[in-house]
Design goal:
Blueprint: E1 6-12, E2 18-25, E3 31-33, H1 36-42, H2 64-78, H3 86-99, H4 104-111, H5 116-151
Antiparallel strand pairs: 1-2, 2-3
Amino acid sequence: MEWDDLVFEEIELFDGALEVIEAFDFRQKKTATITAGARCLLAPLDRSKGGTVLKNAYGHPFAEKSLTGMMAHWHKQAGIPEGYTLHGLRRTFGTYLAECNIQARAIIEAMGHSSMTVTDEYVREANKKRMAVDIARAINEREAKRDAMKQRAALRVVK
């Protein structure tokens, strides 16, 4: 990621309103919108010289392998269990979008996918979770109704 890749885009929201977002436009055509948390982290960094945003201790851009190694080091420092990867974070983001019921086309754009294959996987998994929640909710509602029926007082015939 380089500071020159930081762009401001005006987008139209679903309700028709326009909003300007700040995002990194990657060479692989994968656009990463900057979240409020990331914006706070990037704010104090010097943008005047341009160049790479995330640099190693020598001031050079991270190689993919060294960034993966640093991710493991950062996890250890933060007390996060081993096994979390950059790719895992990316998959989590795709899954989160699908679970938020974002349209598949929007997920493709956000993730930079070239086809629906991986996006379909996210959507299928989110739909499975939704169905499981709906089933559990229906069962709980039925059980609650049945319990309520049992708690009613028995009818007595009074003469």
